[in-house]
Amino acid sequence: MKPISLTRFLIQEQHAGHINADLRLLIEVVARACKTISNAIGKGALGGVLGEAGTGNIQGEAQKKLDVLSNEILLEANEWGGHLAGLASEEMDHSHPIPNAYPKGNYLLLFDPLDGSSNIDVNISVGTIFSVLHCPDGITEPSDEHFLQPGTAQVCAGYTTYGPSTMLVLTIGRGTHAFTLDREQGSFMLTTRDIQIPADTREFAVNMSNQRHWETPMQNYIGDLLAGKQGPRGSDFNMRWVASMVADVHRIMTRGGIFSYPLDAKCRDKGGKLRLMYEANPMSFLVEQAGGAASTGRQRMLDVMPTGLHQRVPVFIGSKNEVETAVRYHREFDAGQ
Ligand code: P6P
């Protein structure tokens, strides 16, 4: 049977009363922007968009030309549609209210326009991550604090991975579904409905070069994975690290696994490496809706009460039983066991 398009999927969800017209428009606008980003990335060196932009962002990171371009594409696509009250981006210091020249809606959109962009110049998969919240009632000019809602408040989340194929993975709180871009039609087509992440795994994703900087429970957890069959886990484990969260999480969506960017001595003062509002929270919503789990190591990710738009957190995300095992190492360490 021919797969249905994203548009048809969203119209079905709207007719079923699961989403309204504004959220349908929001998702379609973001998907269309991701198609534009995919085309820009796909040109590679021929598109004149590789390399550094010569600017920096609030994260203190040098921006790639495609970081800036992807951010501009998402801003321009979302400003005029009337579905948003405001938006926030990894690439912008503060949130961006919708200009008064345009109609306004009730949603807040947060995004990391190009996650893993350090991989762009070496032609490795990167992605876009987005999260959707309700704008608080009565607020027409939202500012940063109106975005500071826990992950459980999300009404929608998704990512697009720009790999051998371009895929959009989406949740509106009723399962997680994958769409593949049909470049000839220019449409995202539903290729996996209701993804189920295996509860157990023999594959972990972590940047091992940080091992000496980790907290003790993380050292113990990974040490036991590396001990393999002879160790307490009784099995051999495989490792993958793409250094692009979207690519690593998409692998986990597809075949299970655990991804971790824990606290370490280098990022402890900042609270972690990865950002809560537009990386960890949307990925956690997507993974939980696919039967997985996500934690800071000491708290369910979606329950974290945000204190800052660019707040960072430690991340453990993926196969439910494996995330719970990693959390148990932290709980037992904290309890002095
Ligand atoms: P490291 C990309 O910069 C990113 O934010 C995530 O996509 C990725 O998982 C992580 O950082 C990689 O970090 O320290 O291995 O370069």
Structural class by helix and strand composition:
alpha+beta
Identify every distinct bound molecule in the structure, by name, code or SMILES.
6-O-phosphono-alpha-D-fructofuranose
Tally of contiguous helical segments: 8
Mean pLDDT: 95
Q: What is the molecular shape?
A: globular
CATH topology-level name of the largest domain? Fructose-1,6-Bisphosphatase, Chain A, domain 1
Tell me, what is the CATH class of the largest domain?
Alpha Beta
Rg on CA atoms, Å:
19 Å
Beta strand %:
15-25%
Biggest sheet: strands side by side, in what order?
A: 4-3-5-6-7-8-9-10
Biggest beta sheet attributes: 8 strands, mixed
Please write the string of helix (H) and strand (E) elements. HHEEHEEEEHEEEEEHEHEEHEEEH
Describe this structure in words.
By secondary structure, the protein is an alpha+beta fold. The chain has 2 domains: 6-192, Fructose-1,6-Bisphosphatase, subunit A, domain 1 (Fructose-1,6-Bisphosphatase, Chain A, domain 1, 2-Layer Sandwich), CATH 3.30.540; 203-334, 3-Layer(aba) Sandwich (D-Maltodextrin-Binding Protein, domain 2). It is built from 8 helices and 17 strands. It has helices at residues 6-15, 21-43, 65-79, 144-147, 216-226, 245-255, 276-289, 320-334, and strands at residues 52-56, 62-64, 84-89, 96-97, 107-115, 126-134, 156-162, 166-171, 176-182, 187-192, 203-205, 238-239, 258-261, 274-275, 293-295, 312-313, 315-318. The strands form 4 sheets. The protein has an 8-stranded mixed beta sheet, sandwiched between helices. A 5-stranded mixed beta sheet has the order 12-11-13-17-15, sandwiched between helices. A two-stranded antiparallel sheet has the order 1-2. Helix 5 (216-226) links the parallel strand 11 (203-205) and strand 12. Helix 2 runs antiparallel to helix 3 (65-79). The longest helix has 23 residues, at 21-43. The mean pLDDT is 95. The structure holds 6-O-phosphono-alpha-D-fructofuranose. The site of 6-O-phosphono-alpha-D-fructofuranose has 10 residues, from loops.
